Amino acid sequence: MVCLGNICRSPLAEGILKSKLPSDLFKVDSAGTANYHVGNSPDKRSVAVARKYGLDISNLKGRQFKTSDFDLFDLIYVMDDSNFNNVISLARNDEDIAKVKFILNEIYPNQNYDVPDPYYGGDEGFENVYKMLDEACGVIAETLT
Ligand code: 4NP
Question: Per the confidence metrics, is the pTM higher than 0.90?
Answer without folding.
Answer: yes
